[in-house]
Design brief:
- An eight-stranded mixed sheet has the order 5-4-3-6-2-1-7-8, with helices on one face.
- It has seven helices and eight strands.
- By secondary structure, the protein is of the alpha+beta class.
Length: about 260
């Protein structure tokens, strides 16, 4: 063995936090994912009601997309706001199998905007927190700087998130009721098939949506929408003699016995 060989020296690799925040905030492929993030957090935070409002407002002389999402869950205290909501990689749901979120990345989608405001109350204290120009700063490899304070106003128990200038785009055409409902139904818990199986009914959770093309809230049905069974062939042939097969619907439920017997 050569005498000049030195002992191993351990070191901790460094991370560029601004670069990581910027990359994660920009990694979301579908602009609709902002609704999935807020909705699933609302469910994880014990909410029974979740509301989405999309509108265009004139802010500083510019037409700006404003998305407001609110729930009646457990709300957040100062520590959760600072170390979970705004922080990276910290999730309160990590060790809870019943929770949806787990990576601590999701709320970073809100940073892809010109301004974010959070109003939250845990039923005891109310906090307000906001951050301006986060995505531009991160793009310049400068850390964004959220601010927080105990609010003089008592907010309702739960959390409201207001995002201005989301996606930094002037194209608002996607934010219609049909498009948002379709996304919620296919890519969020809203479209769960749980109701199709006995003993697996979904919890009481209501979603209300006021999209850009609507002036009032409408309720979004929970659970994937399936066509009603229609398997009476003689009746179908009589009613639709030329294309009865198009109206034939039969539901089969497959149950994995080993899965059902698996211990909790």
């Amino acid at each position: 063995m050569c005498d000049h060989v030195k002992e191993w020296e351990e070191f901790v690799p460094k991370v560029n936090p601004a670069a990581e925040f910027f990359e994660i905030a920009g990694d979301f492929g579908d602009e609709m994912e902002i609704f999935r993030e807020a909705l699933h957090n609302a469910m994880d935070w014990g909410a029974t009601e979740f509301r989405i409002s999309v509108e265009v407002k004139s802010i500083n002389g510019k037409e700006t997309l404003v998305i407001t999402m609110s729930d009646n869950g457990i709300g957040m205290n100062k520590d959760v706001l600072q170390n979970n909501f705004w922080a990276l990689g910290n999730s309160l749901s990590y060790d809870d199998a019943d929770k949806i979120g787990e990576k601590g990345h999701g709320t970073k989608i809100y940073l892809r905007s010109t301004f974010v405001r959070v109003e939250t109350s845990n039923g005891i204290e109310s906090y307000e927190s906001e951050c301006e120009g986060a995505y531009v700063a991160l793009g310049e490899r400068k850390m964004h700087q959220p601010r927080i304070r105990l609010s003089e106003k008592a907010f309702p128990r739960g959390t409201k998130i207001i995002v201005e200038g989301y996606n930094l785009s002037d194209d608002f055409s996607s934010y219609t009721e049909l498009r948002i409902k379709d996304y919620l139904g296919w890519f969020t818990k809203v479209g769960s098939v749980e109701n199709q199986f006995s003993g697996h009914n979904m919890r009481d959770f209501k979603v209300y949506l006021k999209a850009l093309d609507k002036s009032n809230y409408t309720e979004v049905p929970m659970g994937h929408i399936f066509a009603k069974e229609n398997s009476n062939i003689p009746a179908l042939l009589k009613e639709h003699p030329d294309n009865a097969v198009k109206y034939y619907v039969k539901k089969y439920l497959y149950q994995d016995e080993q899965f059902e017997k698996r211990p909790d």
